[in-house]
Design brief:
This protein is an alpha+beta fold. It has 27 helices and 39 strands. The protein is flat and about 125 Å long. It comes from Rhynchophorus ferrugineus (Red palm weevil).
């Protein structure tokens, strides 16, 4: 199969590409490390030029999958060529080198594409000084292809028409037995296809060899004419654009019904700018231009490879079925032959019964005389030499098995002439060698052979009976194989590789895409290319951990559950997995991550500087899960809307009801700090303001909600705190619980022990880690230590939970906390149930803006302006599609596509393909297929295969889901596992057994 351009192809494509002259470069992309796209535009006309180092150059209409993050060469090309006009496209002599000039004068730049050997692509300035080279190397001792070296232009060769003497010299340099075409191709620049074309037109076959079926002296004129025609074709190709042709090959595909019928289709073989003589008799497709033909050929190359691979697998499956049939046929034939031979041996023994008995008796007498086997053998040979008929019939002694071999003939057979009938020849028993047992008589030996014949006949009958079942089973397996091959082929054709699959990735419980780098280079790429200022950067508090980014495309606050899941991912993809060490992770906004150190030096690859406060997350368990996401058909996406919606926001606005009537605790931490004067502010308002200021992901409008009674209570508390400032300055943070007893709630307070930080002037930040359960985190350069919280709490014996009744149970307090708890109880004794509920709603809101509410008595609580100006919310800047870069549009579209992936497929869903995913286990709680992964000793590949085997044996799995799981390659499942693992799943041991 042809996959790269020859010299004639380059001449034709350069002529066709002259239409690009005058167009400006709009943008440049890369498909892989050696294939690049240049998009041109002129008024409303647009063209895309594809350049593949070493292989091809042509315009394309196919939508190639571009890399979202451009490589260094693409960035260099964009820097120098963007908005430049194409001034010249030419070929260097007749070499396979294309020179594209952009701009004029000193602002000119050249892109040189080499289409020979390993290929190369070079960017130079107007003086041909290399600015960037795709493959730096050295040719010979002097020519260097490196930056700041000058590109050599004097290597190009020119083509000209050869005379008879020059052609004769070329042929005479060839050896006897060499092909004429091969000798000419090595010396001329026309390419093998064009050389073969002109030779065939003059009657010189492709198989013509010098000195055998080709005479140089007689056929030299034909070769000279052929070479001259090739030169004329070259000249015409430089003046006029050529048409395009794709030669094809007829392929036979086995039918899926195993009826022996075959289906035919055509596979593309070669692309050419003209229809050559050697291809005119075969199937081909014609195109208006050569570029269209090349574009069609390469755009269908991958799908054709999948199709041919499927055909090969189908052929192998049918070959196995044919081998099964052939094996059964051979077995039956062998059994028939055994029966026939045993029958003939028995009849020969019967017809030579006297001779056989005498031979047996003679050998038995010799053995009875205790002669050695060698002596017996010598006696038999001497008797046979003397003409003894009995000894002459003994062919061989097999005394080790107590047998002798007799050569028997039919004594009743009459000699027939050449005109005897075929029926007489068939009934005639041939002479043959027959083994006879010395322990049996002639009759008994004959009966033994008849018994063997009957046994073989029975075995044949059983084989015939089982043959039907075996063949049906083999056909059923073959049909299933053919169906699976076709299904997997269709799945692989529909399979779309998402841009984030080259990283570690998963989709959080609240539909946020989370990606992490596999190595330092990918960490650098994620932060520099994919992370925006509104995104969240998560990193484990351990050296060498992966950089995790939460793609926050909405610009709103990232829920705490997603933060925890990203923290788990950061810890698991670090050395903590192999070491089995639990550590912390922290998160910051994307705008806090920088590549510049405080000293001004640039950090190494994969290293970043975090500026500002780090928001530490609680330690996470080393527990991941393996599952599958299924790509839905577009019509089925709507049924899965809201599968991964943000649940935490609902709980902050509406208080959950306790339907079961059981006790429900909601824990909130309140800051209790003293100012420089020793006076204490109200705890509720202070906590509210601290939350708003120090929680960067939420910047709502700051409000203060108070009632008249609340104001009086606060004034009273302020007076009390000013009189006892010395005692209050030592007062710790308080821990407040809301306990639900039936339909009422009660406020319970308790102290929270916190560590002293080195920098007291830094603000604390409230990080929400679960369903309305905040913890207080102070920024520190050191690793934060876990804070111990007293587990003691007040429990009310009253049915309504009223504190005024004084029916609280005794609290299990630690030493030295009685006086503090007494003061807390005294401070909140005047609060009624409505006031407590209002204060708790304020605390639970985490600074969120609350609309005007009415209490049960009908009193309005109005918002009062806070003196401090609120910070602006983080809203992403929405760009016009024309202003957005193509990479940004691609990333946004790919992130939006995660809504089409579901882990909970329905029975009536139309599924296209399956994508394996490794995520924190609690993220996969609702997925249909999942298995828990913890640090262990099992290798990644074996663990992935075991997991898939378990999924395939699930009773609830559908046939379509089975096909999709089978189509996933093993390396795709295992590549995202963090290391050696241990699988945990129900009935896993039973599966292994």
């Amino acid at each position: 199969m042809k996959t790269r351009f020859n010299t004639y192809d380059i001449v034709c494509v350069v002529t066709e590409l002259q239409k690009l002259i005058g167009m400006r470069v709009n943008n440049i992309y890369d498909i892989d490390n050696k294939t690049y796209l240049i998009r041109f535009q002129r008024n409303e006309e647009k063209q895309v030029l594809l350049l593949e180092s070493g292989n091809r150059i042509h315009t394309t209409n196919f939508e190639w999958p571009k890399n979202v993050a451009p490589c260094g060469f693409s960035m260099k090309l964009r820097k120098h060529l963007k908005n430049k006009r194409v001034e010249n496209i030419s070929q260097l002599g007749t070499d396979r080198i294309v020179n594209l000039q952009f701009g004029t004068g000193e602002a000119a730049y050249h892109v040189i594409l080499e289409l020979y050997d390993r290929g190369n692509m070079i960017l130079t300035d107007h003086e041909m000084v290399i600015l960037y080279v795709l493959r730096p190397h050295t040719e010979g001792d002097k020519v260097k292809f490196a930056v700041r070296e000058k590109y050599p232009q004097d290597r190009a060769r020119e083509i000209y028409n050869l005379n008879k003497e020059e052609v004769l010299a070329i042929l005479q340099n060839g050896k006897i037995g060499d092909q004429v075409k091969k000798v000419l191709v090595s010396s001329l620049e026309y390419g093998p296809s064009l050389i073969e074309h002109v030779l065939v037109k003059r009657g010189i076959l492709n198989s013509a060899k010098i000195g055998k079926n080709f005479d140089i002296t007689q056929d030299i004129d034909k070769v000279v004419d052929a070479v001259s025609e090739a030169y004329r074709i070259f000249q015409n190709a430089q003046k006029e654009a050529s048409k395009g042709y794709i030669t094809q090959k007829k392929e036979e595909r086995p039918s899926s019904n195993i009826s022996g019928e075959t289906e035919t289709f055509y596979s593309n073989q070669e692309f050419h700018p003209m229809l050559f003589e050697q291809h005119s008799s075969g199937p081909y497709v014609q195109f208006d231009t050569f570029c269209l033909a090349v574009d069609e050929f390469f755009s269908k190359l991958e799908s054709q490879k999948l199709e041919l691979k499927a055909v090969q697998q189908e052929r192998e499956a049918l070959k196995k079925l044919e081998n099964v049939k052939k094996d059964h046929h051979q077995r039956l034939r062998a059994l028939e032959e055994i029966q026939e031979v045993d029958k003939q041996k028995a009849e020969l023994i019967t017809r030579n019964q006297e001779l056989v008995d005498k031979a047996i008796l003679s050998v038995q007498m010799l053995l009875a005389n205790q002669l050695s086997w060698e002596d017996i053998n010598e006696l038999v040979k001497e008797a046979a030499a003397n003409g003894d008929p009995i000894a002459s019939s003994i062919n061989k002694l097999k005394l080790e098995v107590n047998h002798i071999s007799l050569f028997l003939t039919d004594p009743y057979a009459e000699p027939t002439d050449s005109e005897a009938s075929d029926q007489e020849n068939e009934n005639k028993i041939p002479s043959m060698e027959v083994d006879v047992d010395l322990a049996l008589t002639a009759f008994a030996n004959a009966r033994r052979y008849y018994d063997q014949k009957r046994t073989a006949a029975k075995k044949q009958q059983k084989t015939i009976e089982s043959q039907t079942k075996a063949l049906k089973s083999a056909e059923r397996k073959t049909k299933q194989t053919l169906k699976e091959v076709q299904t997997i082929t269709n799945i692989n054709k529909a399979r779309k590789v998402y841009w984030f699959e080259k990283f570690y990735w998963f989709i959080s419980s609240e539909n946020y895409l989370i990606i992490a780098g596999r190595d330092q280079q990918q960490n650098e790429l994620i932060v520099k290319r994919y992370m925006k200022s509104n995104d969240i950067y998560v990193h484990a508090d351990i050296h060498g951990a992966s950089s995790v980014v939460i793609k926050n495309t909405t610009g709103l606050d990232v829920p705490p559950k997603t933060l925890n899941e990203a923290g788990t991912m950061a810890i698991c993809y670090s050395v903590a997995w192999d070491a089995k060490v639990v550590t912390n992770a922290y998160w910051v906004w994307g705008e806090q991550v920088s590549k510049t150190a405080p000293t001004g030096e640039y950090l190494t690859t994969g290293s970043f500087m975090i500026r500002g406060k780090k928001n530490f997350l609680p330690p996470a368990h080393l527990i991941l899960g393996l599952s599958f996401l299924f790509r839905l058909e577009d019509s089925c996406i709507e049924k899965h809307t809201g599968e991964r919606k943000v649940l935490i926001q609902e709980s902050t606005t509406k208080e959950p009801e306790n339907e079961s009537g059981a006790d429900e605790d909601v824990e909130v931490d309140i800051l209790d700090e003293s100012d420089e004067d020793g006076s204490k502010t109200d705890k509720n308002s202070e906590s509210k303001e601290s939350t708003s200021e120090n929680t960067p992901e939420k910047e709502p409008e700051k409000t203060e909600i108070r009632s008249e009674e609340n104001n009086e209570d606060i004034k009273k508390n302020d007076n009390d705190s000013s009189s006892d400032s010395e005692e209050d300055s030592k007062f710790p943070d308080t821990h407040i619980k809301i306990q639900h007893f039936g339909g009422t709630k009660q406020l319970i307070t308790q102290p929270v022990i916190k560590e002293e930080e080195e920098n007291d002037d830094q603000n604390e930040s409230v990080i929400y880690l679960g369903d309305n359960k905040p913890v207080i985190v102070k920024p520190s350069s050191k690793k934060p230590k876990s804070r111990s919280v007293s587990e003691s709490s007040y429990k009310d014996k009253s049915k309504h939970g009223n504190n005024e009744n004084g029916n609280n149970t005794k609290q299990q307090t630690k030493r030295g906390q009685k006086s503090k708890l007494k003061k807390i109880k005294e401070k909140y004794r005047d609060q009624d149930e409505e006031e407590r509920k209002l204060r708790m709603e304020i605390l639970q809101s985490s600074g969120n803006h609350k609309e005007t509410k009415k209490n049960k008595k009908g009193k309005d609580y109005h918002n009062k302006d806070v003196k401090k100006e609120p910070r602006q919310p983080r809203v992403p800047q929405v760009k016009d599609l024309n202003e957005m870069d193509d990479e940004e549009i691609t990333v946004q579209a790919s992130v939006d596509m995660i809504d089409a992936l579901t882990g909970i497929p329905l029975e009536d869903d139309e599924l296209l393909f399956a994508v394996p995913v490794i995520a924190p286990y609690n993220t996969l709680s609702s997925y249909k297929f999942k298995v828990k992964l913890t640090p262990g000793t099992a290798k990644r590949g074996k663990a992935a295969k075991t997991a898939v085997s378990m999924f395939l044996k699930d009773r609830s799995i559908t046939a379509r889901e089975k096909d999709l799981l089978k189509a996933v390659k093993d390396e795709q499942m295992a590549r995202n596992l963090p290391g050696k693992v241990k699988l945990s799943a129900p009935k896993l041991q039973m599966l292994r057994k």
